[in-house]
Amino acid sequence: MQPTEFSDQIYLLASRIPKGKVATYGQLAALAGSSRAARAVGRCMRENRNREAVPCHRVVAADGALTGYAFDNGVVTKKALLLAEGVVFAGDKVDLSVSLWNP
DNA sequence: CGTATGACTAGCT
DNA sequence: CAGCTAGCCATAC
User: A92, A86 in Cβ contact below 8 A?
Assistant: First the structure.
């Protein structure tokens, strides 16, 4: 398979998200060059099979809510991973005012 | 090349 | 506040 420039950017950006921080789909899309490609970002995350190279669990919805996750127990595992990394939660959502990645 | 789909988002009801 | 609709983007078929 031959990754396109867009998906390549997404994987690169995702791998740059520091531990303890999260980024939104729209944010990654914007950094990749298309501020409205949030859906395409999510699609790439689902396609991704290497969670060690691409920490897709650090990517959340625009309001901090956890959406999908392709590994283990889905969003349950996703939340557990984020908590383990020090991400601050406000209920079932990430507290973006504290844990949002700021490139 | 046209259609369908999805881990999104913003706006309305 | 919760639920729905329409719009955008990249891929798969």
Answer: no
